[in-house]
Amino acid sequence: MANSRASSSESFSRSQFESLLKRRFFYTEAFEVYRTAPNYKGDNRGLYDYGPPGCALLANIVNEWRKHFVIEENMLEVDCTAITPEAVLKASGHVDKFADWMCRDPVKGEYLRADHLVETVLETRLSNSRMAGKDSKGKLERLDDATVGQYEGILAKIDNYDGPELGKLIKDLDIRNPNGNGKVEHPTAFNLMFASTIGPSSASPVYFRPETAQGQFLNFRKLLDYSQGTMPFASACIGKSYRNEISPRSGLLRVREFLLAEIEHFVDPESNKRHDRFDEVSDIKLPFLDKETQLSGRTDISHMSIGKAVDIKLVNNETLGYFLARVYLFLVKLGADPGRFRFRQHLDNEMAHYACDCWDAELLTSYGWIECVGCADRSAYDLTVHSRETGTPLTVREVRATPLEIREWRASLEKKLVGPRFKKDAKMIEFAIGKLDQDTLEGLAKELADKGVITIPTDELANGATSVELSSDICSIEQVTRVENMREYTPNVIEPAFGIGRILYCILEHVYWNRAHDTAREVLSLPILVAPTKVLLVPLSNNASFKPVIKSLATRLRSLGIANNVDSSSASIGRRYARNDELGTPLGITVDFDTLQDGSITLRERDSTAQVRAFEDEIVEAVRNLVGGSETWEEVVRRLPVFMGQSQDD
Ligand SMILES: Nc1ncnc2c1ncn2[C@@H]1O[C@H](COP(=O)(O)OP(=O)(O)OP(=O)(O)O)[C@@H](O)[C@H]1O
After folding, report:
1. Residue range 544-571: average pLDDT?
2. Which of 61, 62, 258 to probe ligand 1 with, by most ligand atoms within 8 A of CB?
3. What global pTM score does this model have?
């Protein structure tokens, strides 16, 4: 049976699958030809180029992302630069904290990501132990039950360990570099950003952005104006992002340059993060792996509606829940298998420095569970730090229904004395005072009253100092009552972040299968929505009389915006179809001698290999409906005569 689908992942051969992707030029290692150049010392790892079908698939995924999120939700799209001044990423915390733990193998000179090293070694030991019984030579070590339990417990919460804890595991469990079995050094933090400088002077340090989010935060005021002050609203940005991964592996899954599509949904924290459209998704059942389950060393998934998950506070709020459901619908629409899908909650140590709750949409592949979309509640972190750093309030102002009286600490400087005493530094000192928070001001007020002098931190002053002493003659700190008619608040941010390359790879694994009668016949069942080419046009042979028919069909489909490809090679029709099954082309049209007689053509569907035969107008209409999603193949088969001639696939 040509069309029965061997769907089980046990029959999956990664080498066969990856060889298809290479052969059909979905993507390739960048600068590959330089590998053979004498003296070439470049490191190409984690850098990939996409070929024609890969590019078309990528573009179709991005296009669908825009429709599903940006257009559906009226999001405000921006396109921000990748080159980012150091000050911005210092304020956001990336310069100090955007790091992974790394171990060096001093003998091989290799650098390994510490958590991945522990994971790989423990998984190998567990798998060897499972195989030990079948190993006739007795080379594989069988682990006792307690050790198996210990390893499984560690793996279930591997993302929760920090550097010192990973170092302890490596030492206690004698974990070594699998490549050569050498001992590795203690983990150190490695910042993942690529650094550079701007202009010939090299005086302005910059980084290549590791995420698109910061550009969106810095444009917050303009976006708020653009949305006429209406809250909540969301911005979106798609662009290349850069991470200097310690040891890129697993093809497209961990690369150093990748396309990231991010949404920043700005919401009033006092609204309980409600979402207007939550009821549209609340019944959708999602697969969850929560924090507690992982901490207890288990990985079982519980299914429940997102409505219930928010009700019982498993998911923190409606807005986060709304996006989880929308992300699920999006990935399934692209071809993700719901049976290999889970939302995994971040463990406390794993959470990025800016996040307060985080769920990853993960897809199961031959590489294990892969995070494709990170959904984080970033609270008010980023807008607050950038406001503080720039003195520009990245806030929302709204008229209050009832004015509010607030008691607060306020510091003021004696203007007449500040200028003459501090000269050029005066502005910097005023700025430093403005940055002090209420708790600090309260403490300083007491100190000023007790000692008559306080010291406050500043940026570097003319004399090189980074703090200044202020005496009570020049500085006063007192409690005042302020009446607020306007409410000013910093919005919270819910952020779904989509790694487009990872999604592309995982979807390809999920839609890949081999025809049961011949495992060499490989198929990519990409949904028509994202398939690189929608229709293959095949003349029966290279007889010249077919050419005008094919040409006019191609033009007709193109004018409908339907991507098509002509294969007039001398290979048999079956071979030409097989080639296009590998490219995921969902439909094929054959033109033969009967076409020249009666104008009928054959339409073939990729997955079932079933065919219908009808006049050109009817077939073109069916193709248009299938591509536009208004008709399914089953409906077409019910409506048009099924072609009973010999299947070209046999
Ligand atoms: N090195 C990478 N290569 C490809 N895609 C990536 C890479 N790093 C992150 N992504 C993608 O960007 C999305 C958002 O990034 P995020 O910062 O949440 O990832 P992360 O938690 O750092 O990923 P990981 O834990 O796998 O390193 C991820 O869900 C993933 O799809």
Report:
1. 95
2. 258
3. 0.85
